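step 4 of 6: structure.
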Amino acid sequence: MEFLQQLEQNGFLVWVREGGSLWGYPTILFLHTLGLATVAGMNAGINLRLLGFAPRVPIAPLTRFYPVIWAAFGVTAASGVTLLAADATTKLASPVFYVKMAFIVLALVVLQMVRKRVLQDPLVDTRPLPGAAKTLALVSLFFWIAATTAGRLMAYIGPVSGLE
Amino acid sequence: MTLAHLHLLLNHVPTIGTAIAIALLILTVVRKHDALRRVSLELFCMIALFTIPAYLSGIGTEVRLREMTGISPILVSRHHDAALQSSFLMLITGTFAWFGLWQFRRAGRQTLFNTAVVLLLSLGTMGLMARAASMGGEIRHPEILADLIAEGEVPLDETGAPIDVTAEPGAQDGTALDDGAGVAAVPDPGMFTAAGIAKLVNERVWLWPAMETLHFIGLWLLFGIVLLVHLRMLGLMQQTSFAALHRLLPWAALGLLLNTITGMGFIIANPADYLSWPFYTKIGLLVLAGISLIYFTVFDGPWSVGAGSKVPMRVQAMAATTIALWVGVMYFGRMLPFLGMAF
């Protein structure tokens, strides 16, 4: 707890939180939104393809989108860590935060499972998709919806700071 | 130019536009002219897009009008409710019309079901729009209020004064109606009215966070599909034809509809918080991005991009512009609490 309080007093984090600059808290929050929209959204598109929509889109080349997804995740994670550190004592005391983290970890695991088990299967575009691929896609959509919901609820449930 | 000017100007798009588009739709169905029928569907989509700023500029005008004396808040409320209902139906009509365009592109024809739904919805919209327009015109005519009271259309309190169920448009916490006398005299504003929706959203504490969550899910659904389709146009995943990715576009349209409806809910509940330049910028970018969605749904340029084929420069430029527009919509939405000092 003492460490967290010291962390929050870090010069950069104080500026982010209290500097009143558009480039501080607001811009970092926007980058977090942009990153999550890219990660969860492109992931949703891939899942919808696996669920049978857009059946003429070849599945194997969808791996081309993974570098974009992971780059966007980098932006989301970096902005998220900054937002967390600037408000650590409040956010780390919120149970909803841990629920959100759990869903994100699960969602990322499924994201990689989809790549390894489905997209990189050499026979994927030559035969009907196995049922397991559709299950993965549904589970993945559920985890991102759950993570988004938990993220939004952090502003309402449990300890909430003045920061939005 | 003020918001009121803009409102008076934009009003004509849904009122007159709907009538023109309906006439064109009926004519082209009778004459079996598919190309022109697509034009009528495109018109419905464009009208639906411009209905968003038409409705919102009305909210801005309403907030100003309520600060003035000599304007009957009851006539303003009646117009607002009629406009809300007609705008909502216009958005649904536009969504079905968009789906008809998508069917035309995908299968070369619009299903009979879609044609019938668009026709019925648009006729309903036209009726509601005409009603909203006539009530809007009445706002500057106080003599009409007397007629309405005589007809029993407006409830009166015990002193004989007309009751305005939305007397506190700025009330954000739902407590305004609870203090003071005469609480029992305030009638239920009804479900599908601005006051009713504001009351619902402000009274149910879970509803606002639930709407925000849906707004975020709609945002990533829309943006993710936009990225997949447009990054293909910009050179990623060239093994895929545009026609194959086109099948994902209804999910983007679904995200857009979800966010337009939840967004309207936010604004109806707290209108004063959304009267700022970043919000107007967001709506302007949204209309442009919506036009781009129509472009990618119907135009030959993107449609002719086959598997492995090169993308024409102008299609690439449209794809890059579209991504930038949606990023802009998100930027100004996220910045609402910080720019222009709304909230």
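step 5 of 6: annotate
 - Chain B has two domains: 1-152, 190-343.
 - The radius of gyration of chain B is 22 Å.
step 6 of 6: archive
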